[in-house]
């Protein structure tokens, strides 16, 4: 269920018809990764800010890689 909810966040700007949906989607996705990292710090030994940055970097890298692969198939 959490995968479904978190996976819908990048789609909301497109579903709602925002003018700059891509940029808004990127910011919402990174904010979500940051929030997930902060929540993750409750179960890890890392401070919330370090866990947030780590999760945002890993999640952002995965999202960029997925976008890049998708762009290759769009050509």
UniProtKB/TrEMBL annotation:
Q: Name the predominant localization.
A: membrane
Q: How does it sit in the membrane?
A: Multi-pass membrane protein
| Keyword match Transmembrane helix | yes
Fetch the Pfam families from UniProt. VIT1
Residue intervals passing through the bilayer: 48-73
Alphabetically ordered keywords of this record: Membrane, Transmembrane, Transmembrane helix
Origin: domain of life: Bacteria
Q: Where in the cell is it found?
A: Endomembrane system
Q: Under which name does UniProt file this protein?
A: VIT1/CCC1 transporter family protein
Q: Which organism is it from?
A: Roseovarius rhodophyticola
């Amino acid at each position: 269920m959490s995968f479904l909810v978190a996976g819908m966040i990048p789609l909301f700007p497109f579903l709602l018809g925002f003018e700059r949906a891509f940029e808004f989607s990127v910011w919402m996705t990174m904010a979500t990764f940051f929030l997930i990292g902060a929540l993750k710090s409750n179960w890890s030994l890392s401070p919330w800010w370090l866990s947030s940055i780590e999760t945002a970097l890993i999640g952002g890298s995965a999202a960029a890689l997925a976008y890049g692969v998708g762009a290759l198939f769009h050509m």
